[in-house]
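Follow-up to my post from last week.
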Amino acid sequence: MTKPETTRRAVLGGAVAVAATTAGGLLLDAAPAAAAAATPAPAGLVSTDPLAHLLRRATFGPTPAALAEITKLGAAGWLDRQLAPAKIDDAALDALLTRLPLAGAGIATVRAKLPLHSYDGFGQLGRAAVARAIWSNRQLFETTAAFWANHLHVAAPSSDVWDSRTDYDASVIRKHAFGRFADLLKAAARHPAMLTYLDNRSSTKVLPNENYARELMELHTVGMKYSEADVQAAAKLLTGLTVGKDGTYTYAADKHATGAVRILGFSHANATAAGGEAAVLAFLDYLARHQATAERLATKLCVRFVADEAPPALVTKLAKVYLDNDTAIVPVLRALFTSPEFAASIGQKVRTPFEDLAATVRALGLGPEAEGVKALDALYNSLVNAGNAPFRWSPPNGFPDVAAAWASPSGFVLRCNSHLNLAAGWYPKQLTRPADLLKALVPSLPATYGALVDALAKRLIGTSLPADHVAAVLSVAGKLPTSPLTGNDKSVAGSLPYLVALVLDSPSFQVR
Amino acid sequence: MTAQACCDENRKLLSRRGLLGRGLAAGAAGALAGLVGEGLSTRMAFAAGGYSGDTLVVLSLRGGFDGLSAIAPIGDPEYYKARPAIALPKSQAIGGDAMFGLHPALAPLLPMWKGGSLAAVHAVGHPNPTRSHFAAMEEMERAAAGTSTRTGWLDRMLGMTGATGPLAGVSLGTAMPSRLFTGPSADISMATVDGLALAGESDKRPMAAALRKMYASAPTLLAAPAKAADSALTATAGLRATAYVPANGAAYPSTPLGAALRDVARLIKAKAGLAVAAVDCGDWDMHEGLGTAAKGQRMYDNLLETANALAAFAADLGPAGMANVTLLTVSEFGRRVAENGSRGADHGHGNAMLLMGGGVKGGKVYGKWPGLSAGALVAGDLAATTDYRAVIGEILQKRCGLGSLKDVFPDVAPASLGLAAAR
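User reply:
Got it. Predicted complex:
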């Protein structure tokens, strides 16, 4: 780790908690007006091919193999395949992940293998997320799992979930990522990582702790629809959901505050301590099926996959699909990716630093290191510096998912540096590289430098760059677009990393 | 208008503002058009001049700072009734007076308190409190309740100063942009000064020039950070050329806050044109284990770490440097007066602010103390008797040379607490 670890609730909001994740459903009303005032969508920078568009959104970055596959299967066939991830072979990734045995480890395993409060589980989990984003063949599953991890966020590293955070990833987020939200929410609520991160484990019937109750409503479900009385009633109701001595979830009836509750239109007699857990589960089911939850989730999915301003009609449609399918997630995703709003959203999302890094490694065709995890360490640490390492956002609202939150000078420089480091093979050195990067990217050498940059751009971005960008890229090689390129040109090899990096630095590559 | 409707309206405006984001940092024409009516024309009139006021350092204590621990009301018996497990015992308080005691973890700052360059204001708050971290932070950063203003207050303040250099407004310690700077005034965010360097750049391979050409006509959202990066790289090139050595033996703790304040001091001493710096200092959300005033307890450890960083900052700049610096703290809300069952405190309202600088009339706690009796509390929270913007307003007028505050804090009267000397 290159920086001091953050503790649990460190830097709430960071500098940035931008609208996507703030204040519940507010984004819905807010976004269109803001977008109109803020900036035109960066249209025209990327290919308008609908299949390429789908790949840019539903994966962590197009690759030649993915393009070939989607071209063969068509959009619907490709979606079908991606929505049934168990049938997709991912053996190479699975083999890589055996080097990170704690990434999905259960609580007992972590406790048995690590010293108390060790951060090693967090480290392996974060590196596994990087590896999955880059090299998994189950790309839509991975993008969706990342979405849910960010929605039901439990920061890692953060104190006290040292033993449970990896299990949370496996048994809550990944288990239910393509399941029903109601099940996902209930699994989160009965997991020690969530109960610890948001303090419910120490809540008592005499003095309830309000933290989880508030975020459960504000962040996980309905948004800012609650009153302070709702928070207090929910905090009371949630007492008893706690963590046992062995670190696993337990319901402690003796800690549960009984008595009738009314919360957001939900009411329950909550008459007995023994029945407290059932009352909580009924409340969670109520929240999961609430119209406001449906709209918030639809909005967040749109912000993730469609545009920073969620199209209102699509939100309405997806919310209905969500409720009609008893909170099942796959039908919502299918409706989203086949909607006209999605088709019309080409160029309207900008890559986060994490997406930029994953897309860069994928576009360059770099493979995992032959052994060990040094390259994964390096990739993870570069994301720490960019403020976007997996699970590392400290407050419970998750990383912001809109371009404005990431549009910083430092972030821009970090992206550019990462492009050159990866293109040149300077850092991390351990990644497996094509024997000849030029041949791998441009199999047959064109006649001019201009045509070379054009070929690089088509291969790396899927589209040509404007003529003035081509000229700008070539300026670092001291060449003009018309400069001839011959097989025995010695300078091309030396210039290649810079040319590749600048193509990846172009505005086009920032768009997904 | 009902309270709920009012809040909804506020939130809508807040979120719109949030989305405007950094795309506007360079002051694109489209952005400016969207902000007309927010005092922009007034602001532009100042823009020609230079800035000669204090460098203002805004330290955001994120998560909800417990002012009742930091500046504990040890003279209020209700304090001890409400917090039987976590109240600061009178015997452990340092500094202060009969009513207020400083938390012992603030000991590194005690010389400044006694020397009169550190003050506190108690019972400050927002006009429209919410206990949502995220809504409260937005409001704190926008600081224009009840208006359609969408910019951050530091952006508006920066615009008023007339400081226009590339390093006039800087967020340190994060690669992500600070929302305090949302709006048209140019600002940059840097994780660290040393970390801002473009790989591969050389005379032989002019990467920066190539990037400049590619982003010349890019959409604002993409172009603004690229252009700001370009300016910042140029402006900080000289700084990075030599390793920074703090003066006066100042020992910054190796924490994110220590590193960020070290870079703030570095920019100030380099006379890089820094008018306003924003720094985050997180981890104040202590629902659990806020604890007693002992090492290993969360409040103690956080306060000590913060105090060490602030003390190093003041030492590094020295009295002469600090004569032209005011640092102040803000937080989205204070914590509930009564402790919860987890040796912590849930989200509350009224809070304490700290102010540090050569122009601060320190050594005392300002503000009207409303008391902690049941009748004085507002929904279990410390009542706010002073608008936090009024406190900042007094600094802006006395130390930063601003006249009217109406374009920074609409509808706020500056406090006349007398907590700062006029420059």
